[in-house]
Amino acid sequence: MTTSSTAQFPDHFLWGVSSAGHQIDGGDEHADTTFLEHVTPSVFKEPAGLADNSWNMWQTDLDLIKDHGLNAYRFSIEWSRIEPEQGKIDETALDHYDRQIDACLERGITPAITLSHFTAPDWFARQGSWLNPQAADWFADECTRVMQRIGDRVALAVTFNEPNLPHILAMGGLPPEAIELQRACLDAASAKTGVERYRAGNVAIPEEFDELENGFKKAHRAAVAAIRAIAPTVPVGLSLSVMDDTYVTEHGRELCQQKRDACYGTWVDAVQGDDFIGVQNYEQLVFGDDGIIPPAPGEPVNGMGTAFRPESLAHSVIYIHELTGLPIVVTEHGASTDDDTLRCRFIEDSLAQFAHIVRDGVPVKGYFHWTLMDNFEWISAYDSRLGLCSVDRENGTFARTPKPSFAVYQHIVETTVL
């Protein structure tokens, strides 16, 4: 495996937080996810609405990042805002991201962007989304116009966020009723729009998983070429959802390997030549003879129902580096819990082991915690809390209040030598 000879990472370790536009911005009325939130039945518990109002409060968010000693911020560039109708470009949206990049740099914050964090334009979904043969070209055009505007100041570009998620969820024990609700949601959207297949990146059905992922892979390669044509010194890659898959029996080992082959192994060829690969880790899965072993009775669990396992981050980073040969950026890591004491302990224990492998020479360029503040967590809406800050949505102020875990993370950043 080789990386681009021209790409240059920042000369400092990136300590930051990650976010996604649909989950925090609010008001992206031309997004496919917004449309899917309003069909019946919908797989989404409720619409995102104004989310955290970050489209208007983004400077407050950047101040929080700076004030807590972080030097990097990963956020998404929302295609549906830039091209709300096919062929019609909204320059004011590009202006918004232009200002946001400049404001990051003014605060000493390294900007890292994601070009596709699940959401896409509604017009794109009506034409089959990533299943459409023209999808890669359309996405490459979007990457070109974005990089033409801000590529001279971006330090890192992620093409796709977790494009392996459909297989991850299916092999991680997603209940059949959840899969069928996604099917019903897509059927409702297709019927409402009068198209054959209304499709989206994070609402999928099993018989289309391979076709969807092939669409992502083709679009990723087109995006990498487009980005390098405009900004050859910007490191580019994609991020994968990575669970720390382990086992306790021989048959469990076989099941674990099947999971790894289906969810990660198929991406090795697609990322060859990239400058890095993003690892997004939240949990560990332990396989036994009968499949995934649940947590022990009374063991604290996160919002995903799995036990807090701090070693999962370091294990996942080592595995993906050995699998691909690429440098690593931890583009997401965190814990869904209402108990911030558990989050504090999880951050401390996870990053202690993570720092150890970095010092031992595993080529890791940065760590982005998910996430800055409680936000819209897709199908669970606002019931899943992963933020370092709480947000007052009830009173409409959207005031951000840092949790103790933010201070814990700040202390680690300020005292850890890598």
Salient structural properties:
418 residues, alpha/beta, TIM Barrel, 8-stranded parallel beta barrel, 3-stranded mixed β-sheet, 41% helix, globular
Written description of the protein model:
- The protein has helices at 21-24, 32-37, 54-67, 79-82, 91-106, 122-126, 135-150, 165-171, 176-193, 209-230, 250-263, 311-324, 340-359, 404-415; strands at residues 14-18, 72-76, 110-116, 156-161, 236-241, 244-247, 277-281, 284-288, 291-292, 328-333, 364-370, 389-391, 400-402.
- Helix content is 41%, strand content 15%.
- The chain starts with 13 loop residues before the first strand and ends with a helix.
- An 8-stranded parallel β-barrel has the order 1-2-3-4-5-7-10-11. Strands 6-8-9 form a 3-stranded mixed sheet. It has a two-stranded antiparallel ribbon with strand order 12-13.
- The protein has one domain: Glycosidases (TIM Barrel, Alpha-Beta Barrel).
- Strand 8 (284-288) and strand 9 (291-292) form a beta hairpin.
- The protein has 418 residues and is α/β, with parallel strands linked by helices.
Give me the secondary-structure topology.
Elements lengths: L13 E5 L2 H4 L7 H6 L16 H14 L4 E5 L2 H4 L8 H16 L3 E7 L5 H5 L8 H16 L5 E6 L3 H7 L4 H18 L15 H22 L5 E6 L2 E4 L2 H14 L13 E5 L2 E5 L2 E2 L18 H14 L3 E6 L6 H20 L4 E7 L18 E3 L8 E3 L1 H12 L3
Parallel strand pairs: 1-2, 1-11, 2-3, 3-4, 4-5, 5-7, 6-8, 7-10, 10-11
Antiparallel strand pairs: 8-9, 12-13
